[in-house]
Structure formats: structure tokens, C-alpha cells
């Protein structure tokens, strides 16, 4: 191959790679609509309350706040504050084969909790207002290693309606649900642990 052909091939390959890195992730209408319904609240925080908890924990007897803190075309970061505890951030991503939900758990110094980045991935189209995230393989292995075998059948669900955002965890014998009132934005909190304003 002469130098001109080599340069042309190199240019085409480089151009294709650059285009691929800028191309939007493939998605389907229900996933896009769900993502957009959440993203429209970017920069706003809302107070919520526990609506269902069949194994009540005193930890949740506190002010509950969700903050749609950071949004781009592929990822939403939504910290969940429980009183003064800012250890939890929900991360929803477009993956090219659906949507993923991860739970980023940090210590107050910003370091990772031993149980972090667990979650699930959509397995169907879902709905514009509702998506389900059955537990993924990484999370099953993490839960098994950390002595949390009851969590390997988790499914997380997120509902987004004009007046309400709901986070729900279900598995056999367990249901936990928090509803947030989207009609009354509140002052935005500081960055969650491990993140910066």
C-alpha cells in the first residue's frame, strides 16, 4: 500500500471513530420519553415521604430529598438525601441496549462504600412513565460477597408523573417505596458525599 492510500485509510478510520464517539446512543421511544420526563426537572430538588415499607427502619424517619442534580444526553445523577446522610446517588444511564440504574454509595469522606454501584438494567420497553430495573449480574455477585443474599432478587422501579416521582424496591417479602412531590420544589442541597458543587 502506497503512502497516499495509507493516509486515506487512516483518515477514514479516525473519522469513523470520532463520529462513533459523538453519535447518540441508540434508544427506543419509551426509554427516551422516560429519560426526558426525568431530565426536565434537572436542577430541582423535591421532598418526599416513605409511602410503603414493610420492614420499617428508623433511619428513614428523617427529611427525605431527591435532587435531579446533573443531566446530559446519556446520564442523570439524582442524589437521595436521608436527613444529614448524603451517601446515596441514583445514576440512570442510556446504555445503547436500554437504561441502567446504579446506586452510588459513598462514605462522608467521599470514598466508596463496600456496597456500591449496584443496580439493574431494563429488560423490556417499559413505559414513558415507568421503568423497571431487575438486578444485574454484577450486583448479584456483590450482594453474595457482602452477605446480602436476600438482595439478589431485587427489582427497582422508578415512576415519573407530572406531580410525583417514585422510587420503589421490591423482592419476595420486601417492598420499599418513597414518593416525592414534584409540585413543590425546595432549595437545592449541597453536593452529595464524594461529589463537588
TrEMBL record:
<feature type="signal peptide">
    <location>
        <begin position="1"/>
        <end position="20"/>
    </location>
</feature>
<keyword id="KW-0732">Signal</keyword>
<protein>
    <submittedName>
        <fullName>Secreted protein</fullName>
    </submittedName>
</protein>
